[in-house]
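EI: anyone free to look at a 125-residue chain?
SC: sure, send it
EI:
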Amino acid sequence: MPQKSLSLDQIVEKLIETSKIVENRMGLKSQEEVRVKDAFSLLASRRCSVKKKPYLELLQRVHKRIGGYGVVLCAAIGPTMILALKDRDRVDLVVRMEEESGAIEQGELRKLANRYTGKYLRRHV
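SC: here you go
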């Protein structure tokens, strides 16, 4: 069954909720971990299919403006949710993440970001 696309506000709420769950769990579920590895690999390669290009562009903006923890968070909820947003909403998502940074639990996300940045991006920076 196709996943219902969510509004920008709903995605922001999902990101905040996911950050709290990751913090309380002290890590990612296995499927989330796969998505995070894929996201950092995508950032490192800087190349992708036309279909995933909007996702890569969002990850690049998130990485540049928010940092690796934002990439972990976006990847954890999955590219399907991100790609379901309209282009304008994907652009606005980065701004909304900055505005809501106080509500996003960052401790565990930052640890994960440091691990994946070291593994995938150090040689590409």
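EI: Residues 15 and 74 are 7 Å apart (CA to CA).
SC: 👍
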